[in-house]
């Protein structure tokens, strides 16, 4: 990247005008080198026509002046990070109070040093619905993201963590599996975090996955971190924070991030869209007992694990495995390098768990070497951005004064066949546009 460096002492307004001219005409990011005690307010820059901080980066030596508004860059290392963050200038536009800055610094430092308490506090911050806290959380997240990018660069561009989604109907043995699987991984020097997505919590106000005493042994393990699902919010809200929590966990050095969801709703589709590998855990039962499982979700699975393949259940587990093997042959191929596998395991006895991890590692290596993993992650980012925009826009639309009262009436007219759905939508959209 090109940028011009200016050093400012005397006649700074003339210089700033010149810098702005260069920046504006030549579209070159400019760097302004400043001296201590040389204070520039945001208004000062705005007066010269700069519209965002990323237009213009300031370098200052730490000193009495470092508390001034343009506290952007204090060392060449942070300078590099700040340049990387140009893509998200709006997040830095809001000035943080000293207290907020201290909070971010404390959480960030604690997080990257692997302190579980700081990770927990950071996730609580991103789950906050209070607008100010949300902003602070986003600044923290940006910081963690740039740390991520640096670490990934050091790791030759390879992802820092393996993101795994786990879904299955209630009683399939998810907690027993995670306990057994997680312990095996920590014994092999992995750091494991478990995030639960439980959409039922948004309607019941309680967390199904979180309330129970689950995974007692794993939760005592210093190399594991278990986070129950947030207790409020829409599915989109819950999954948005889960997405961000994944990044925080990775920043905290967790190299295996497990996202668990109950396989009876929409959450598993959302989870499948935020992980590298999606696993479906099923009990050795078929037909009626698995009615809650949606067909579509089987198509999303990269691996199906038939659990409880022990004692009397070995025979039905074998039968179910054979059924799934043939059913999955009929599914559309989603990857050039991987065909979904069906395995038998027992979370109770631990049988098959190590082999399952070997298969998972094989999947990750194949996906990485073929470039499919990174392509998938990039695609997921875009999907998520649009999902969130859609959800927010729809909320905004439904709550808008110009359409709010009209919706029930128009819905009724569509239901009774008085109005076509297309026409009703046109009426509402026009009212919305006119009311903007
Ligand atoms: N025989 C046998 N029983 C198991 C196995 N894994 C889990 N179970 C039993 O199945 C029951 C449900 O297990 P959980 O781990 O609580 O299942 P879950 O999927 O987390 O259930 P929810 O929390 O309701 O979603 C418990 O009684 C477990 O002891 C297994 O491998 N073999």
TrEMBL record:
PANTHER family: METHYLMALONIC ACIDURIA TYPE A PROTEIN, MITOCHONDRIAL, METHYLMALONYL-COA MUTASE
Keywords: GTP-binding, Hydrolase, Nucleotide-binding
Keyword Membrane: no
Name of the protein in its database record: Uncharacterized protein
Recorded family membership: Belongs to the SIMIBI class G3E GTPase family. ArgK/MeaB subfamily.
GO CC term (a single one): cytoplasm
Keyword Mitochondrion: no
Coiled-coil annotated residue ranges, if any: none
GO molecular function, one term: GTPase activity
Subunit structure, as described in the record: Homodimer. Interacts with MMUT (the apoenzyme form); the interaction is GTP dependent.
Record-linked NCBIfam families: lao, PRK09435.1
SUPFAM superfamilies named among the record's database cross-references: P-loop containing nucleoside triphosphate hydrolases
Pfam families: MeaB
Described purpose of this protein according to its UniProt entry: GTPase, binds and hydrolyzes GTP. Involved in intracellular vitamin B12 metabolism, mediates the transport of cobalamin (Cbl) into mitochondria for the final steps of adenosylcobalamin (AdoCbl) synthesis. Functions as a G-protein chaperone that assists AdoCbl cofactor delivery from MMAB to the methylmalonyl-CoA mutase (MMUT). Plays a dual role as both a protectase and a reactivase for MMUT. Protects MMUT from progressive inactivation by oxidation by decreasing the rate of the formation of the oxidized inactive cofactor hydroxocobalamin (OH2Cbl).
Reactions catalysed according to its record: GTP + H2O = GDP + phosphate + H(+)
Extent of the signal sequence: none
Entries under Gene3D superfamilies matching the protein: 1.10.287.130, 1.20.5.170, P-loop containing nucleotide triphosphate hydrolases
